[in-house]
Amino acid sequence: MSVALTSTAVPTSTRSDEVRVMVVDDSVVIRGMISRWIGAEPDMEVVASLRTGLDAVNQLERINPDVAVLDIEMPDLDGISALPQLLAKKRDLVVIMASTLTRRNAEISLKALSLGASDYIPKPESTREATAAETFRHDLIQKIRHLGAKARRNPLHSMASPPLAPGHDRPRPLAPAAAHTAPAQATRRSFGLLPPKVLLIGSSTGGPQALMTLVAEIGPVIDRFPVLITQHMPPTFTTILAEHLARTSKRPAHEGIDGESIKPGQIYLAPGGRHMRVARHGVDATIALDDGPPVNFCKPAVDPMFTSAIDVWQGSIMSVILTGMGSDGMRGGKDIVAAGGSVIAQDEATSVVWGMPGAAVNAGICAAVLPLNQIAPKLVRVFAGDRS
Known about the structure:
- Pfam families: CheB_methylest, Response_reg.
- By secondary structure, this protein is of the alpha/beta class.
- Helices cover about 35% and strands about 20% of the residues.
- The protein has helices at about 30-40, 55-65, 80-90, 105-115, 130-155, 205-215, 220-225, 235-250, 300-315, 330-340, 355-360, 370-385; strands at about 20-25, 45-50, 65-70, 95-100, 120, 200-205, 225-230, 255, 265-270, 275-280, 285-290, 315-320, 340-345, 370.
- The strands form three sheets. It has a seven-stranded parallel β-sheet with strand order 8-9-7-6-12-13-14, with helices on both faces. A five-stranded parallel β-sheet has the order 2-1-3-4-5, sandwiched between helices. The chain has a two-stranded antiparallel sheet with strand order 10-11.
- Helix 10 crosses helix 11.
- The radius of gyration is 20 Å and the shape is globular.
- The termini are far apart.
């Protein structure tokens, strides 16, 4: 797969402003490669390169990193076992889980998110494959930059914070971000006049946790309307995420299949590595999978799903843009609004990264900007006919 990558300009930083990164991986090759990449960035530095999770736990207080890139499979103490111990010592530590693309590792990565990890990244099967390595580098650097910067702006706790409560199985609450919430003067549009016939959702970093929260509360919507979701995720991960969405929502959920009819009562998730578009086949709306190039550095991407849905449902579309890096969904959201549909964005205080929803807000296309826990009740009301 050919991916065109461009570097993101970053401001020159002083040493005290740099994001401090701890790399934890039992492979000396991976540790060296990641450390070189980070060392080449002006706004971050490697403060430790460690072989095991046990080393990371024992040295965390001395090192005091902002971000830990944590391998899953390591001797002495693996990543999923080290994670709660690291967060017990430093609750505001940003942990990015790194793993190869196996079903087991994908399951562990999603479990890690529920235990407090901030994000995950799939490692290439071979560092000799240039495109895979460059994609990994681009994604990792962006995750470190955005998550690390937010952690430095909004620290949750000191190093001496108490350990996680036993049985902790939900994402850590996000720190209030009053200084960075959507400005009161941001333009709000009226909700579309046409009753919505479909719910489209786009998400990226922090999305799995947000999606679980959302689908658990929108049963009345799912029962009467189809729900289509694009979450930036690789293959295997999306398969497992669909299974989790089904369990959480207690409704059928699966990866979209090329050519299948779109029906109410179903959740369709874009499969990793392919864009999920919508097409009209006779009287039916159908899934159309697209193996074209990445859009906004992503495959699947939100914009293709949003834009293609207009040909099927015109202005009868309700779309939601959840937490995520970048601006994917904003252009498609503009098209939906121009067609007469509506966009709701997650607010900054409850977003892991306020890139995607922030871009939509700043573009002036949102009918509402809401904390995560208020989005589901709003959707239920809108689909019941309240578009105030």
